[in-house]
Amino acid sequence: MLTNETQAEEQLLTDVTLGAWRPQPLPTPSSGRGRTHGTSRNEPFDRWFRYPAGFASDYVTTLLAHLELDSESLVLDPFAGSAVTGTAARQAGHSFFGVEAHPLIAELARLKLQSQPRATDKTLGEVARTLAVAAAQQSSSAERRIDQEPDLVTRCFSTPVLGQLVALRDLIRAGAGESWNLHAKWALLGTLRDVASARVGWPYQRPGTERKPIHSNPLARFVQRAEWMEQDIREAAESPNHLSYQVIQGDSCGKVAWKNLSPESAQGCVSSPPYLNNFDYADATRLELYFWGDISSWAEMCTEVRSDMLTATTQQSSVPAARIATARLEEYGEIADSVLDITSKLLAERNKRPRGKEYDRVLPDYFLAIAQVLENMATALKPGSPVVWLVGDSAPYGVYVDTPRLIGDIAQGLGFSFEKDITLRKRGQRWQSNSVRHDVQLSERLILFRKS
Ligand SMILES: C[S@@+](CC[C@H](N)C(=O)[O-])C[C@H]1O[C@@H](n2cnc3c(N)ncnc32)[C@H](O)[C@@H]1O
């Protein structure tokens, strides 16, 4: 429920027009980036799994419409996440090319964009019901094995619930290679937080704090999720064969992922990069990664999940990487001075504290990565193509980092013309923990630029 103040503020912000682009006001998005965080719980495809970093799909749909792309354009998202831009682009009759570094989330994105589950004589709902019946029969024996599960997993569920989840997981794993397998896997992963009896709200899991599960019956919820998937797939617009929907798992700062795209073949971009120190996307999905057995330690999280992600948090930073990035930023002109200036202020703040955090090491790496992504996009986009990015600013130790403006400056240096910087909403002060308290008002902004 929105407060009056929030409603008034949102009305004001949504009344801002896109100026030269479009005269109509932007509607308020239902959920996700642009409103709060997390993909919608209700919208088709978004509801498959609530990714904390996800866009509001109605918002992406609106933005795509505002871009006035020719029909059947190719839309880019270098930070594709759970493919909210991808599914919105498909629905609007466009092709899509995305890059996503998180392997599990890239799998989800590809699954959503796969037009249909491969031919099978059973519907997804029927498959899920068969699996649920078998899991019910096997759950007692699964319960006896739950002490083999990672500590995080055992602490998040009651024993009977975990027995059913483990039984389902083992049945789905045994069906690897079946046409329905990945859908069943994601119906199960989407069920985990619904039936947890510990605080597993985004972005971080708190297994030590109990809560009442949102849904009490994991098997019924699993079947319901599979039925949603089936319904969404059935109702998705029939896509012409010549359109393509691609998500590459990898690093959009490097060149490799972009080899799958011809130069100047894309006509627009709607994206949202990681915000500086907003949160750690790998860690935010720890419950799913541990439960499925993708990783079993923090070290594996770093090598298996995080390795392609750009540096946006102090946990990812290092002295050598910051040094190299500082030198390489020089290639991008004056922006290097702006970043260096903020870095010095952050270092001074760190030195005032006994165990200060290394925000000064994050910045050069972060902005170098952003510059590399923009450079790759400049090659991939046709001249005249519009780009919309949703991004927040930040203020570690109270040192203001105007990320949207700095991104705009980098883009201009790379041959984009900068058109608009619109404040969408004020946002929470994530830096306002004990050691990094500040009172700088932060916001989420929409920046619009165009390939010259
Ligand atoms: C703000 S989220 C975007 C979410 C997306 N808009 C959605 O609706 O799900 C940023 C995404 O960028 C991904 N990411 C981080 N570094 C990356 C990189 N170097 N290359 C590609 N993706 C990256 C993160 O894993 C995260 O999913």
Describe the structure.
There is one protein chain. With 452 residues, this protein is α/β, with parallel strands linked by helices. Among the domains are: 142 residues, Rossmann fold, CATH 3.40.50; 112 residues, no CATH class. It is 43% helix and 12% strand. It has 16 helices and nine strands. Strand 3 and strand 4 form a beta hairpin. The protein is globular and about 65 Å long. The N terminus is likely disordered. Bound molecules: S-adenosylmethionine.
What descriptors fit this protein?
452 residues, alpha/beta, 9 strands, Rossmann fold, 16 helices, single chain, globular, two-stranded antiparallel sheet, binds S-adenosylmethionine
Concise overview:
Among the domains are: 1-114 and 245-272, Rossmann fold (3-Layer(aba) Sandwich), CATH 3.40.50.150; 124-235, no CATH class. It has 16 helices and 9 strands. It has helices at 4-14, 57-67, 84-91, 103-113, 124-143, 151-156, 159-174, 181-195, 218-235, 281-284, 286-292, 298-305, 319-329, 335-351, 359-380, 403-413; strands at residues 74-77, 95-100, 198-199, 206-210, 245-249, 268-271, 386-392, 416-427, 442-451.
Bound chemical compounds: S-adenosylmethionine
Rg: 22 Å
What CATH calls the topology of the domain at 1-114 and 245-272 is Rossmann fold
Beta-strand portion reads: 5-15%
Amino- and carboxy-terminal Cα gap? 43 Å
Instruction: Return the average pLDDT rounded to an integer.
Output: 87
Given this structure, which CATH class of the domain at 1-114 and 245-272 is correct?
Alpha Beta
- Largest sheet, order of strands side by side? 5-2-1-6-7-9-8
Gross geometry: globular
Helix content: 40-55%
Look at the structure and name the CATH superfamily of the domain at 1-114 and 245-272. Answer: Vaccinia Virus protein VP39
Sequence of secondary-structure elements: HHEHEHHHHHEEHEEHHHHHHEHEE
Low-confidence stretches: 1-23, 431-435
Helical segment count: 16
Count of DSSP strands: 9
